[in-house]
Amino acid sequence: MQFYSRKLIKPEDLNANNTLFGGQLLRWIDEEAGIYAMTRLDSRRVVTKFISEINFVSSARQGDVIEIGLALLDLGRTSITFSCEVRNLFTHKTIITLERIVFVLVDEAEKPFPHGKILDMFKQIEK
User: How far apart are CA 127 and CA 96, in angstroms?
Assistant: First the structure.
């Protein structure tokens, strides 16, 4: 798993319990995974297709710094699949895990479009 981005938890990111609002965290994950899919498929035309069960493991509080990690799992004809872990930068304590996030490459009509990429090529890049 490679950790690509970091976020500082600010007051506007908190819920009524003064911990990180889950919706905000999911927004950051979707954005980061979407950017990662774009870079791997060489296109801005990717859309979120599926996000698996979300497992909230621990909380983050104001002032914490979190990092978002992604690992390439699979490459379909039109899709790319990652797993995700978000952890506290300093303690490395897991905050959330997602087993699968799937993005699909689409054409101008927003229909799935073959990307022509090969999984072995990505496995070499990820090492």
Answer: 23
Distances from the Cα of 104 to the Cαs of 15, 45, 118, in angstroms? 31, 8, 15
pLDDT in tens, 88-118: 999 999 999 999 999 999 999 999 999 998 8
In the chain, at which residue ranges do the beta strands (DSSP E only) sit? 2-8, 46-51, 54-56, 65-75, 79-88, 94-105
Q: Which domains does the chain have, with CATH numbers?
A: 2-126 (3.10.129.10)
| More confident call, 66 vs 127 | 66
> What is the CB neighbour count within 10 angstroms for residue 64?
19
Tokens 């319990």, residue? Answer: 17
